[in-house]
Amino acid sequence: MKTSFVLPTGIEPLTRHPNATRPGQKIDLHHSMCYGCGADAEVGLRIAVTAGEGLTATATMQVENWMQGGPGVIHGGVLSGAFDEVMGTVPLLLRRPVVTGHLAIDYAKPIPLGSTVHFGCEIIGGIGRKIYTRSYAHLGDPDAPVAGAHALFIVIDLEQHFADYRDKAVHPS
Ligand SMILES: CCCCCCCC(=O)SCCNC(=O)CCNC(=O)[C@H](O)C(C)(C)COP(=O)(O)OP(=O)(O)OC[C@H]1O[C@@H](n2cnc3c(N)ncnc32)[C@H](O)[C@@H]1OP(=O)(O)O
Known about the structure:
CATH topology of one domain: Thiol Ester Dehydrase, Chain A
Strand content: 25-35%
Protein name: Acyl-coenzyme A thioesterase THEM4
Distance between the termini: 43 Å
Number of helices: 2
Membrane topology: Peripheral membrane protein
CATH class of one domain: Alpha Beta
Mean pLDDT: 96
Organism: Gordonia hydrophobica
Number of strands: 6
Main location: membrane
CATH architecture of one domain: Roll
Helix content: 10-25%
Low-confidence stretches: none
Bound molecules: octanoyl-coenzyme A
InterPro entries: HotDog_dom_sf (IPR029069), THEM4/THEM5_acyl-CoA_thioest (IPR052365), Thioestr_dom (IPR006683)
């Protein structure tokens, strides 16, 4: 798939944390009100990410009517959010919390409403606090991707990063 994302030189391989979620199990984390993964979010993608071997993962998302751009197909921004969620979850296999620094999406085919989108994702490697990932999406045939993505995530100190915003957090009612 064509992309204009350029990986820097000097990316080092990274190693899965020994206590990371086992292959085949859902990577459970975060909070139930998250737009990307939360079951209690008023509006959300409700993506479940499953750990794969090494530093890989898979995920699925149902394309619901409210996600329409189109007409009849998913909005590009929704797909972008889905890639962000999938790729942002995989660094948990390193047991390192991250936020997105740079996200790049390549849209190859329209994705109809009602589809199930399947994602594959891997960590390419890292440089210091920078972690590089790539992902692709398909509708059932991995050899026929409908979109791809790359992202740079930055490792953060979780407490410090969100310290000024916790009083704004929304909780389940
Ligand atoms: C488990 C949950 C799954 C969640 C998935 C969803 C994830 C998200 O959507 S997170 C929300 C969206 N992202 C954000 O809100 C992040 C907002 N940005 C920030 O807070 C800061 O800019 C932050 C933390 C990314 C970086 O700031 P800071 O900690 O001061 O580090 P900083 O020194 O600027 O950058 C670190 C390195 O990354 C590089 N970098 C940072 N941003 C970029 C960028 N956009 N492009 C390229 N390089 C970048 C810097 O150049 C630096 O590189 P080097 O170490 O070689 O000098």
